[in-house]
Structures are given as structure tokens and as C-alpha cells.
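Summary for the steering committee. One of the milestones for this cycle was to obtain a three-dimensional model of the protein with adenosine-5'-triphosphate bound, which we needed before selecting residues for the alanine scan. The sequence and ligand used are listed below.
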Amino acid sequence: MMIVEQVSKRIGTRNLVQEISFNVEKGRMYGIIGPNGAGKTTLLQLLSGMEAPTSGEVLLQGQAIASIKRKELAKRVAVLQQGGIPAAAFTVREVVQMGRFPFQNWLGEERSDSEQLIHDAIETMGLTAIAHRQVDQLSGGERQRVALAKVMVQEPELLLLDEPTTYLDIGYQVQLLDTVKRWQQDRQLTVIAVLHDLNLAAHYCDELLVLHEGRMAAYGPPSGIMKPELILGVFGAKAVILPHPETGVPQLLLAPSVPPSEIR
Ligand SMILES: Nc1ncnc2c1ncn2[C@@H]1O[C@H](COP(=O)(O)OP(=O)(O)OP(=O)(O)O)[C@@H](O)[C@H]1O
């Protein structure tokens, strides 16, 4: 559904992202991982059409993403940015409703089942009890769940998530990714997510793209990516990789680089 061809982004003399190419297939989930400053958010902005590449091309179903009109793009691609909901005095319900704006005509009218969509998204994200509260009075985790409910009502073909588990406790991290995964599988949604937690990325993503200093350091299924040499080379961290005892998915264990006796 998307072809990313030799995409680079340069600002001044800095190369933020360099010569990235990969194909995105419908109904799959892709993880972008890499250290701080590697270019993950920049790449996601290029994939969303929010930023234009300096060279190379992003094609969404054969059409250059840069040439698709904003409103049309907003119907097809939803982006969950870091801290991406307004800090203004809107209620949870009002913010979720905003996800339907691209579908309204100039009179603010749209299809009749949109109320049901909004109701379902609020319920799925466990927001029913706080639907009347103002978003600027919510915790970081609650706001993140509101942001996901807002993109859910957009019913996009492609969902781009920038560190969606930030602010969430471990229970909600798993709940949010479970919700996205179920949605991906039930509706053939395509998902590309920047994730910092490599263990969650290995469990939820079909393919992982590893960025290092703006370049693609590796690309493939988690079983091919979660290798101690790669983790050391890219993150500079010594890791032990073990299969999860229940799922068999490779999981990473970190250890301090100094002996425990020196830490105590
Ligand atoms: N507008 C800009 N002008 C110049 N440099 C920028 C600009 N935006 C980002 N950068 C730099 O580009 C590099 C990549 O930034 P980016 O935010 O894409 O990294 P990231 O991998 O998402 O990092 P993090 O994990 O810390 O969120 C960083 O070194 C950053 O300082």
C-alpha cells in the first residue's frame, strides 16, 4: 500500500534521514526502532506527508503522498503524535469527535452512524466514565487513550503512531497495543509505530526497521533483528536475548555494564 523509495531529509548541513527504502503491505504492523536522535520521528513525518523529503519519494497506493490533498489524506492516514491532543478546554467526547472533521461537509454533516463510532471508540479505550471531563485536566495516560480514540473514529487505512505507549503504565501499554493489534487484524488496518520498548515491538510487529544515525541499520522480522550484536552496535547496550517462555518471541534482558558489586 505504501512504497518508500530512497527517502532522505536534510536540514541545513544535517542529514536527519538518509536513503530509506521499504515496502509497506496492507494489514501488517511495522515497528521503527532506534536510539534517541536516530531519525524515527522524522521518518514518521515523511511517511505521513507532514514533511516533504529532500530527495526520494513516498507513494501511497501509487500516488505521491505530497500530491494528495490535506483533507483527503486525513481520511486515509491517521497520525498519533507524541502529546498529540489539544491542551485546550475541550471534553474527552469533543476531542474524540474531532477525529470525524475530515468526513464532514461544509455544514458539519456526515454519515448517520458516526455517533455510534464515537461511542464505541470511547468505550473501547475505557473512557466512558470520563467522557464529560476536560482533557486539560486528565493524566498523561488518560490523554494518550483519548488520542487513540480520536484516531480510531477516523477509520484510517494507515495508522502512524509515534511512541504511543509514552505516559502509559505497563497495563495500559499492553492494552493499547492489544487494541491496535485487534483493530489491525479485524479491519486489515496497516500500522507503522515508533516504539522504544523493543520487547513490546518484538511481540506486536511483523517487521522491524532499525534506524541508526538516520540510516537503516537493519530491517526484518523480530526474530532476525533481536540479536545481541545488533543491539550493541546500534544502542551501545549489552543484552541477552531469550525466547519468551509462553510465546517464544525473542525478548531482551539488559544488564549493567559494571559488575553488580560496584553498583551496591
Ligand atoms: N527541525 C530540525 N532542525 C535540525 N535538526 C533537527 C530538526 N528536527 C530534528 N532534528 C535532529 O534530527 C535528529 C533526528 O531527530 P528525530 O526527532 O527524528 O529523532 P528520534 O529518533 O525520533 O529521537 P527520539 O528517540 O529522541 O525521539 C536529531 O538529532 C534531532 O536533533
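Key point for the committee: The two ends are 52 Å apart (CA to CA).
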